[in-house]
Amino acid sequence: xxxxxxxxxxxxxxxxxxxxxxxxxxxxxxxxxxxxxxxxxxxxxxxxxxxxxxxxxxxxxxxxxxxxxxxxxxxxxxxxxxxxxxxxxxxxxxxxxxxxxxxxxxxxxxxxxxxxxxxxxxxxxxxxxxxxxxxxxxxxxxxxxxxxxxxxxxxxxxxxxxxxxxxxxx
Length: 170
Fold this sequence. Notes:
The protein is mainly beta. The protein is built from 2 helices and 11 strands, in the order E-E-E-E-E-E-H-E-E-E-E-E-H.
């Protein structure tokens, strides 16, 4: 199974139900806990590879939660990504992984796992409305799925039945 960053126009919507959505948790050298969670909003079948495996695209929202032992001056000012990046004072903060939880989904009867993994944490000079420090967090999503032959056949059938057909005017 291949996961694409964005679905092509002819991608097919897939039905899914969340089984479990959890947090990935990291602790910085300053004892700050950074929690990240992906809430999947849709899965799409973007095509079938030559080996018969499905190419899935997913979309969702990321949630972050910061718990810091030392607070700073709270601010209620909304900040752009550019302002946050410009305020980075430590571009590569050391951190330990506390937990990386797999989210699980039932996608058209096939169990699909998605995990958010933090790759880089950068500290800024900014603080949020609670006085917690603001970090710029780089991450990636890892997807695993059952690749049984019957699952390949199921997604091939979905692709052929739901794919918009090219129609030509007479």
